[in-house]
Amino acid sequence: MNIFRRTARSTSPRLSDTQLRIAWQAVSLLLDYPGEQAARHRALIRAELGSLPDPVASGLRTFLDFADAAEASEPGRLEREYVETFDHTRRGCLYLTYFAYGDTRRRGVVLVQFKQAYRKAGGEFAADELPDHLAVVLEFGATHDPATAWKLLADYRAGVEMLRISLQDRKSPWADVLVALCATLPSLGEDEAGEVARLIEQGPPVEEVGTEAYALDPSLSAPYEPASADPGRQFLGDTIPMGVPMGAPMGTQR
């Protein structure tokens, strides 16, 4: 696959294809609503921490320790804090395109493009959740096509950074999950840093009359380039539960 580089950004630390899939699946599960399977998911993720580099594993471990202790001392606390963190505040928005486009019509065009990107990579999206939900994008990257997910995450890197900053400012336990995720992504480039500064000052845009539809150029994103191939483990299999098997509709089971 020929993917053209826009800048010299790269992941830090450098992850193999398998490590990237494990990390993204773990973050995807931890950013999902902590339902009946949450404790099982945490145990499975904890068992994989030794396979991840420390900057990624440490953030995940810190959150797992918090979540296990919270549920042991006060059942239901994790669910309540999740809702307070992500469902009641704009700054805790888990939708990648929200920070860039707010609730404008332009964002509607981009959501369609997300679905088209999934379909092109062989992952038909069939869910009530919006396709730009961060957990959905990460699950897609872990189970279907990390290269396409990498492009989407790189295109909206500023939004991921805004979410990390917001969670850290509020001292949210989920901030450690975002720190782990950011350790797998390209560092902020000059354009992204400027966009983050603008968002901090102005917030997401409001509706603009007469906005024209546009098309993303996938060749302009930072490329996904795994450090090394690992033919022994292409996917996590039964170790960490997949949202859907390869080739099945996305988002039908989380």
From TrEMBL:
Ubl conjugation in keyword set: no
Keywords of the record: Nitrate assimilation
Pfam families: Nitrate_red_del
GO biological process: chaperone-mediated protein complex assembly; nitrate assimilation
GO molecular function: metallochaperone activity; unfolded protein binding
Glycoprotein listed as a keyword: no
Gene3D superfamilies: TorD-like (1.10.3480.10)
Domain of life: Bacteria
PANTHER family for the chain: NITRATE REDUCTASE MOLYBDENUM COFACTOR ASSEMBLY CHAPERONE, NITRATE REDUCTASE MOLYBDENUM COFACTOR ASSEMBLY CHAPERONE NARJ
Name recorded for this polypeptide: Respiratory nitrate reductase chaperone NarJ
